[in-house]
Amino acid sequence: MTGYQLKGSFPLIFERGAPGRRGYRLPPLDVPEQPIEALIPDRHQRTNPPALPEVSEPEAVRHFVGLSRRNYGVDVGFYPLGSCTMKYNPKINEEVAALPGFARLHPYQPEETVQGALELMYNLERYLCEIAGLSRATLQPAAGAHGELLGLMIMRAYHESRGEGHTRREVLVPDSAHGTNPASAAMCGYRVVEVQSNARGGVDVAALRALVGPKTAGLMLTNPNTLGLFEEDILEIARLVHDAGGLLYYDGANANAILGICRPGDMGFDIVHFNLHKTFSTPHGGGGPGSGPIAVREELVPFLPVPTVERDGDRYYLDFDRPQSVGRIKGFYGNFGMMVRAYAYIRTMGAAGLKAASEQAVINANYLMKRLAPLFDVAVDRYCKHEFVLSGRRYKRLGVRTLDIAKRLLDYGIHAPTVYFPLIVEEALMIEPTETETKETLDEFARVMEQIVREIEEDPDLVRNAPHETPVRRLDEARAARQPDLCFCAPASSTVGEVNAGGGGRTDG
Amino acid sequence: MYPEDLRYSQQHEWVRREGNRVRVGITDYAQQELGDVVFVDLPQEGTTLQSGEAFAAVESVKAVSDIYAPVSGRVVEVNQDLADRPELVNQDPYGAGWIAVLEMENPAELDELLDAEQYRELLER
Predict the structure, then answer these.
(1) Which residue of B has its CA nearest to A183?
(2) Percent of chain A with pLDDT over 70
(3) Among candidate residues A221, A234, A165, the one with its CA nearest the CA of residue A194
(4) I need a surface site. Which of A43, A307, A410, B75 has the fewest CB within 10 A?
(5) Contact with chain B for residue A481, Cβ under 8 A
(6) A285: three-class secondary structure by DSSP
(7) Which residues of A, range 74-93, sit inside 8 Å of B by Cβ?
(8) What is the pTM assigned to this prediction?
(9) Which of A178, A391, A477, A479 would you mutate first to test chain B, the one with the most B CBs within 10 A?
(10) pLDDT at A507 over 60
(11) What confidence tens digit (pLDDT) does each residue in A80-121 have?
(12) Domain spanning A358-481: which CATH class is it, in words?
């Protein structure tokens, strides 16, 4: 196959072209030619030519356009990926981020030439603090889990400053938490202690009471949690943790449900994390890049990473003189382009707009939950916030698993929801429609789910063998993990085979 | 699918008594729920374990799950075959898919585990 059809495989760009083919021609040299040996020492010269594709311009364009037609994103269709807030990213964000005054900055420019960028960072920090209900923030973390790690480093620095660093070695994490929570805690050197959920899907306060104590460094909590439920006992939970001398960490993965409605700082959280790429409409998935700011209560401000952005009258500057800081956690100042997009989003929405977005996200989720409730078991029968969890357990007896339903959705041009998470729900389907979807889209999704359920009852193999319409059929996930094939090995007939074979052979023939 | 000669834990491990030792694995139910196992994090021989302590982990395409020691004891043997063939846990959970052998500290702890009948009841609940 040599074309770029939508289904089936097509060659890699390394398998196309011909030796010597180029998509460009350089003009003749207008300076005297220098021998390369005179410019670059022997030991830095390569002995083999680089393994680059040799293609014409149209070949290169068709290749990448061919690939791009297979992309699926929120600009293509509905993307109800629970706990990941795949909301639409308004295009004005891109327009603003592309302004040359932002896009063409260099991180080594003198401060007086980047005052606008510093002002934006300064103001964005204030906005996030206002939303969190806390004192100061850092915009540096490059992703959500990076922010989690920083939050825990601040927690550790706080306990060390009080002489309790070596005794407070435990971080409590609910059994419904994102996997990154225990992973970040372990990465920061903490012992992870799991807290059970109760029948209403919240933290079991009695279980928590038995677990907190002089060893507790803190509790990591997502609110609303990964079942899409608000922690009804949050004030009691905060009191228990604080009375034991611990801190409360807020995982901001689900902050899209609460903007302008309630503030984590008022609930008792000491360290609050946001994902700009979830809540504040910056690109998500496909490499982002992400951005995971951390806001903290007044007592924790000295531990924030350097540099902070400060203001002196009309002048903004970077402050590195912070002796109790945990240090730097990112090259330069974080993913600045994401800050510009999030700032544009907050400014275009305004305070009332952010609140309306959260309200709409919650209404959309509750509407869709009611529409789907006849088809699945609802994990916990309560009003949800911005997302909800269903169980596909009733279809197991027909030999159809949640994974099969997720794959079948792809045939209808819909991205699958999160599946098999949270772990405490059997055959879980976690659905988050977000505020940016219309009622028509939600109804269409519900109709597709009804159709899939009919298929399960009438022709389960159709669902078990899905997807049928995608570029590739069902992939063998287990084999991909057990025998990963990580090396490209050009076929013998390829024009670039010899050059490219250096990467090593396939492991599985 | 739940052999009568085995004992079972609430966390879906099985144990087979071999004198003063026990062989440990995960049940057929556990392997079905996990789905295709792609990696088993095996314990070190010689590790001493308290009953209920996590000592191994099974990673499937869905999730990573801890495996808990059903009884207290010392790890005297681990199933090195699982390093290359983790799928044995799915294919033969009570045979070639065993995970480790423990030298028991207190064989009386076996009485606290479930028998096949009780384990079946646990699953039906």
Answers:
(1) B64
(2) 95
(3) A221
(4) A43
(5) yes
(6) coil
(7) none
(8) 0.87
(9) A477
(10) no
(11) 999 889 999 999 999 999 999 999 999 999 999 999 999 999
(12) alpha beta
Q: Could you give the CA distance from residue A117 to residue A139 in angstroms, rounded to a whole number?
A: 13
Q: pLDDT tens for residues A393-410?
A: 999 989 999 999 999 999
Question: What are the distances in angstroms from CA A276 to CA A151, A332, A478, B13, B25?
Answer: 16, 18, 33, 42, 43
- CA distances, A462 to each of A68, A146, A418, B32 (Å): 28, 41, 21, 22
- CA–CA gap between residue A22 and residue A482 (Å, rounded): 40
- Among residues of chain A, what percentage have pLDDT more than 90? 82
pLDDT at A491: 60
pLDDT of A494 above 70? no
Closest C-alpha among A345, A321, A315, A334 to residue A119: A315
Least confident of A42-46, A85-89, A470-474, A499-503: A499-503
How sure is the predictor about A506, in pLDDT bands with cuts at 50, 70 and 90?
very low
| Joined tokens for residue A139 | 């915009």
- CA quadruple B34, B39, B45, B49: dihedral positive or negative? negative
Cβ–Cβ < 8 Å for A270, A301: no
Token couple for B90: 């799915």
Nearest to A152 by CA among A136, A134, A172: A172
Among A420, A426, A478, beta carbon nearest to B38 = A478
A92-348 has which CATH code?
A: 3.40.640.10
- Nearest-CA residue of chain A relative to B82? A482
Q: Residue A344 in contact with residue A120, Cβ under 8 Å?
A: no
> Which of A401, A404, A482 should one mutate to test binding to chain B, selecting the residue with the greatest count of B CBs within 10 A?
A482
Domains detected in chain B: 7-93 (2.40.50.100)
Identify which of A403, A426, A482 has the shortest CB distance to residue B38: A482
Q: Find, among A396, A435, A430, A398, the residue nearest to A415 by Cα.
A: A430
**What does pLDDT average to over chain A?**
93
CB contact under 8 A, A482 and B62: no
Hey, of A420, A429, A430, which one would you mutate to test binding to chain B, going by the most B CBs within 10 A of its CB? A420
> For residue A478, which residues of chain B lie inside 8 Å, CB to CB?
35-38, 61, 87
Which H/E stretch holds residue A205?
helix A205-211
Is some CB atom of chain B closer than 8 A to the CB atom of A508? Answer: no
The pLDDT of residue B61 is 85
- Smallest CA–CA separation between B20 and chain A, in Å? 32
Q: Within 10 Å of residue A141's Cβ, how many Cβ atoms?
A: 27
Q: Helix A144-161 crosses helix A180-187 at what angle (to 10 degrees)?
A: 40
Say whether pLDDT at A504 is over 60.
no
Q: Fill in the DSSP letter of residue A42.
A: G
pLDDT of residue A498: 42
